[in-house]
Amino acid sequence: MKVLKSLFCSIVLSLIIVASIFSVPVNATTENLIETKKPITYEEQEVLKVNKNGKTESLTRSDRSSVIQKAKQLFNNNIKSEINYNNPLAKQENNVVNVPVVDTKDNNAKTSAKKPSLVTMSYLTTYDPNKKTITTKIAIKNIVGEKPVVIEASNDLYTSNTYSGKYQRVFIHSREFLGANIKVGKSYSKSYSVKSTKFYISRHTTVAGWKGSLPDTSTGQLAPTLANKIGEIYPAIINHHNNKMLPLPSRADLPKVPEKDRVDWDSSKDRGAYIKKYIDTYGNPKWDWSAVDIHHVIPRERGGNNSFNNLYPLPRTMHQQLLNPWWARY
């Protein structure tokens, strides 16, 4: 039975946030641009507690076995080989996904003095394009009061070729903490070798059992992350003028289109038409447009067109040194 759960996501992005209309200035140089291959880590934390009036009791050997058995059974019941994802706020059109900008809030658990026995678990997922790996880590972050008898934990990876819909489990990382291993700082890591561009979801499950109490359980998952064939995540960029995130492709398996079949782009006519519509739609940002590229969210070589929702203004250096290299590894 779920009694207490705290979940927060701390995203360490490789973008340099500056006082600019974009996350990186228009006049950025190679030296102060983002290290695109820097590992990026996502973290979630789960807090579980004693499930019987906050009290623990003496434990016999048979009681201990019973607690462990119940925890294992509850843990196995929460493990899924397939999950579904749907974000009702995301708008999808023509292979493009627009995810709204949301404010991040600190949802750290505020524990009560009346609930003395707690365990906080940390789940980290690291995308490392240098090693072409995704590593999931399971760690005991904190213990308050009496430590549990057993902790069953998993931090698995699921993949899909589409942003929404079914995700299949491709990577299993499960751990059992018993006895002396139940201590703050104890952790396990396991890596998955990236082979192709995919959407990834990391999903974790925790079951903790205390003596004299039914096991407490908690399950959570991250929103989809798009990573290319070397494990480099799709750039998260905000245009602070219109407060729009850079849309992402809705598919990870867009085929390459022969050059003769690609949509033409007139760098004068089509570019001018986009700039005019941008100003008509969002107002005049008073940018130096000569330093701005018009980026195709879905590249023309992957079937992208010149529609307004498939175009996004970017500082030229960012476009050429961040987005183009990412797509080159698609």
From TrEMBL:
Residues 1-28 form the signal peptide. Keywords: Endonuclease, Hydrolase, Nuclease, Signal. GO terms for molecular function: endonuclease activity. InterPro entries: HNH_nuc. This is HNH endonuclease. It comes from Bacillus inaquosorum. The lineage of its organism: Bacteria, Bacillati, Bacillota, Bacilli, Bacillales.
